[in-house]
Amino acid sequence: MALLLAGCARGTTSGAAAAPVPAAGSTESAVTVGKRVAERFRVAALASRRFTHAQLWAALDPIVRAPAFRVTEIGRSIQGRPIRAVTYGSGPTRVLLWSQMHGDESTATMSLADLMAWLGDASDVDAALRARLARELTIVMVPMLNPDGAEVFQRENALGVDVNRDAARLATPEARTLKALRDSVRPQFGFNLHDQGARILTGRSGRQVGIALLAPAADESRGYTGARGAARLVASGLVTVVEGEIPGRVAKYEDDFNPRAFGDLMQRWGTSTVLIESGALPNDPEKQRLRAINVVAILSALDAIGSGRYRAADPLIYDRLPMNARTAVDVLVRGAMVVLPGAPPMRADLALNYDEPLTRTRPRVREVGDLSLVVAMDTVEGAGLFLHPSPAMLDDSRGGARRLRIGAPATFTLRRGREATSEAVPVPPSLSPDPS
Ligand SMILES: [Zn+2]
């Protein structure tokens, strides 16, 4: 493990020392650079959310060969896949970033790849900031901590264990690898990079959460002492940056202390840790916009930490963030008269969830009845109309009586009348009966 920090005195900062950097310490400039990095250094081989360890490292291999990096195998997964750390810079402030501890949460892995592509680049594109980061920081990145989970795109590792509930027991090699790396690097700052569900809404505005942030608690008292105080300031800076990108779509993650989770224990172990959860944005099924926002957010945070400017952040900006609050359903069909064979039409709301909420495909019936308290991402107004379910939506197992089946594929036609021949009203294409 000593290898990881050995040989840090690489000449990545040559030529930059004389350059005046007054503006480079400002949020605006790091955000501007971040946007440019996200666009110009996007690793094109990672084009969608689902990729394997082999695919990731095939894409990263030519990038991390750059002399600016040290690559270390820090452990192996249950199935023997190497877990690697990529280190950049030789500054006194050490920052540890790890992604995809949950195998199906890949957004920030793509962002780390893009950042690496820029950090290792030899051209002069935003080279001043790159050189300054190398001088101020030692950045240790672990993209894809749980490669076995990523292989089958599941949250848990190959044994079915949630690695983020294994920070205390350290029963899994993936958790032991991260803990050993932390103990070796002794980072002052940490970034725990995850994805959260697509159906979570902010408390205040009820918008879908694009990014949720948390400076995790280090103990039950949830005070902002020790490492957590600095983490809160870093998080405040992140709120400002991300709100600038997706106003009203930033929330605070649940703040309960979890004595088995890495974010919480990292904080307790003395590493000021911020959790970044990529949620979902409209029309971003592969989370490519969120990938770019992560690049901007992480780069701005690195800049703020390196320059020390994070200390000037207003903690109230973080404190006032609305919580990850309500869970929405994907679609609510409100107020239609439902036409069931052999029964009079019945007024009922329908809640539907897609099997794939990001791509909005394969809707299923979730709930039927008076759903006036249900919050939905999309609402289809059915008042005054008749909802004719497709046969797949009906259950006829009970003595011939046909009723709506919870969990059934939710495809239907909205018509002006109760007769199957009456005029149809357009519904979103994903809800229309399959013409086959
Ligand atoms: Zn996660």
From TrEMBL:
<feature type="region of interest" description="Disordered">
    <location>
        <begin position="415"/>
        <end position="436"/>
    </location>
</feature>
<keyword id="KW-0732">Signal</keyword>
<comment type="similarity">
    <text>Belongs to the peptidase M14 family.</text>
</comment>
<dbReference type="GO" id="GO:0004181">
    <property type="term" value="F:metallocarboxypeptidase activity"/>
</dbReference>
<protein>
    <recommendedName>
        <fullName>Peptidase M14 domain-containing protein</fullName>
    </recommendedName>
</protein>
<feature type="signal peptide">
    <location>
        <begin position="1"/>
        <end position="18"/>
    </location>
</feature>
<feature type="compositionally biased region" description="Pro residues">
    <location>
        <begin position="426"/>
        <end position="436"/>
    </location>
</feature>
<dbReference type="InterPro" id="IPR000834">
    <property type="entry name" value="Peptidase_M14"/>
</dbReference>
<dbReference type="GO" id="GO:0008270">
    <property type="term" value="F:zinc ion binding"/>
</dbReference>
<dbReference type="GO" id="GO:0006508">
    <property type="term" value="P:proteolysis"/>
</dbReference>
<dbReference type="Pfam" id="PF00246">
    <property type="entry name" value="Peptidase_M14"/>
</dbReference>
<feature type="domain" description="Peptidase M14">
    <location>
        <begin position="49"/>
        <end position="305"/>
    </location>
</feature>
